[in-house]
Amino acid sequence: MLNIVLFGPPGSGKGTQSEHLIKQFELIHLSTGDILRVEIAAQTELGVEAQKRMDKGELVPDEVVISMISKIIEKNKNAKGFIFDGFPRTQAQAEALDEMLLVHSTKVDLLVMLDVDEEVLKKRLILRGEKSGRADDVNIEIITNRINVYRSLTKPVSKYYKKQGKSFPINGMQTEAEVYSDISHVMRKFVK
Ligand code: ADP
Predict the structure, then answer these.
(1) Ligand 1 contact, 8 CB (< 6 A)
(2) CA of 184 to the centre of ligand 1 (A)
(3) Given a cut of 80, is residue 186 above it in pLDDT?
(4) Is the separation of the CB atoms in 33 and 95 below 8 Å?
(5) Cα(167) to centroid of ligand 1, in Å?
(6) Which of 33, 56, 82, 123 is found 20 to 30 A from 135 (Cα to Cα)?
(7) pTM score, two decimals?
(8) How far apart are CA 19 and CA 145, in angstroms?
(9) Would you say 117 and 9 are in contact if contact means Cβ atoms under 8 Å apart?
(10) Dist. CA 46–CA 94, nearest whole Å
């Protein structure tokens, strides 16, 4: 298996780059944000609870997302690998992911870190909100909160991977094609 964590702040292009990567490398795209939005649309109990946090720009509890991811990994034991997009977002999630993968004798191979300045992120998210109407993209206070949550809870998680020599920083302010070219360059080192 080839398992990649696409890491970076909200609006750094994780979803966009995942779309390209799944086509080229035939990996399963696992976006916790997308899965949660499906639950919200279906108004499941999980979705209703998650929405309260998401609409404020806060994180959904670790045990909720960890259990979602665990079920999907379980169902796709024979996959070529996964792209984790928006997960892990806390240290507890990172450690849980390691355990889940270890059960299947696999691991996180690399973390791709998309670096984008905060001012650029805010502009991108406002623009995305105008197009998609996504509740957490339309309001600057919620956007700012998400960026702050990223800075305090999520960004430190990258150190966990850096210590293991698995972190690859990429300039996420280049064009979409340039960012993708940099990511595939890194990925090729891991594909046999
Ligand atoms: P973005 O990265 O652009 O903010 P996502 O779709 O990844 O968008 O996430 C949207 C929201 O979903 C987050 O603000 C958070 O509330 C929730 N969420 C997504 N992934 C996680 C996660 N791994 N842990 C906790 N909450 C999450």
Answers:
(1) no
(2) 24
(3) yes
(4) no
(5) 21
(6) 82
(7) 0.96
(8) 26
(9) no
(10) 21
66 lines ligand 1 (CB under 6 A): no
Question: For 107-150, how does the pLDDT look when each residue is reduced to its tens digit (9 = 90+)?
Answer: 999 999 999 999 999 999 999 999 998 889 999 999 999 999 99
Given a contact cutoff of 8 angstroms between Cβ atoms, the answer to whether 147 and 122 are in contact is yes
Q: Are 27 and 19 in contact (CB under 8 A)?
A: no
d(CA 122, CA 191): 34
Domains along the chain?
2-188 (3.40.50.300)
Closest C-alpha among 79, 80, 150 to residue 113 = 150
- pLDDT band at residue 191, thresholds of 50, 70 and 90? confident
Give the number of residues written for the chain.
192
Ligand 1 centre distance from Cα of residue 27 (Å): 21
Residue 192 has pLDDT above 80, yes or no: no
CA angle (6, 4, 124) in 5-degree steps: 15
